[in-house]
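Justification of computing resources. Each target in the renewal requires a structure prediction run like the one illustrated here; the chain below, 110 residues long, is used simply to show the kind of job we budget for.
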Amino acid sequence: MPPDIEAIAEQVFAALADPTRRGILAALAQGGPATATDLADRLPITRQAIAKHLALLTEAGLVTAEPGERRRVRYRLCSAPMQVARQFLAALARDWDGHLDALKDHLDRR
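Resulting structure tokens:
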């Protein structure tokens, strides 16, 4: 597997490991683009905490920052890194499927 795919998948999995970040992504998926203040109104954490999580999500490529009116930044979901992570998991699943099928065949022959 190319190293850049592994690196992107690692960033995505690290970002998704935190329940607050998953909540932010879910809020953006449900409500569309939003500012940190908008998200703080919807979630039980402060705007400053949201901003820190959004910085990590932006670094992982899961959200993009778009300049808005009056210097307010809106965040939008970006699905490309999730697609890469899904490809990474699919490749792992194919590897495991082959090994598990071989084990099943071996055990069936016994």
